[in-house]
Every structure is written in C-alpha cells, then in structure tokens.
Design goal:
Layout: E1 13-14, E2 48-49, H1 55-58, H2 67-86, E3 99-102, E4 108-111, E5 120-126, E6 138-144, E7 147-155
Antiparallel strand pairs: 1-2, 3-4, 3-5, 5-7, 6-7
Amino acid sequence: MTTIPAAPDPTWQFAAPPAWPAPPGFDPRKGHVVDPTWAAAPEGWQFWVRPVIPAEARRRNWSGVPWWRVALGAAALLLAVSRFFTGGSSGADTGVGSCWSQDSGSKYVPVSCSDSSATYRVVSQVGSPDSCPQTSDSYLDSAVDGDSRYECLVPITH
C-alpha cells in the first residue's frame, strides 16, 4: 500500500500517479483512501503540486493587490506630498505638513497654511521630542492611536 506524505501547504493540490484510476477531486486530506489494488506510485513521485495560478491573479502586481488599488495608493501619496510642499489645503489641518500658530495664551492652534497667522509648519511626527530635527524650534504633544507622538515644528518665514 502506498503511503502519501502530508501536503506541504493547505493550498497545494494532490497529484495522483498516472496509473491510478482516482476519481476527480480525489484528495487524501478529504478522507479519500488509496485502493490497495492500484499500482504502486512511481519511484520519487511528487504527490503534491503548487496550485495553478489563474490568469486573473497573474495580471495583478507583485503583492497580489489589484492594479487599481496600487494606482489609488500612489495618487494618495502624491497628493500628500504635494500638500506638504504647497502648504496644505485651505482649511486648518493637523499632522505632517500642517500649519500652526500660537494664540495669546501661548497655546498652539492649527491654522490654514495660507493664513497670515501661520507661524509654524509640522515637518515630522516622532516618538520623543529629542527626535525632532535640529531645525525644530518646538514641538506639539499629540496622540496617535493611543501612542504619544510629538509633532516637530519649524518656523515659517513669510
């Protein structure tokens, strides 16, 4: 009786030897057993093969993500980079690229980067104030998903 080794991976497909009259869908993982009257498998027979990748999946990019998702992600990245270099949107944002001002009580408040009161721009978010670039004058203490974050501020020259 032929002993069939375990599949290397659950996605691999069973390959019956050529002399076996195995019915379609025969798979030892599903409880199917080898009929003792079947001929022995050829020496070195590979019982498990990698699944065939359908043509649709081959058209996807290297990570298996559809091309349109890659394009959408690239567009979002380009938008974020352009907002950083152009001063953000017309409204008050927060995060890297956003602009801030100090009110009369020395509290930082987000403002539109096109606003004349914008005196600082956030250049990075870091885990500690010591990680801010040397060019930073100050930092804001903020939280992202419960983690402490510091937004490094550099002066805006008008």
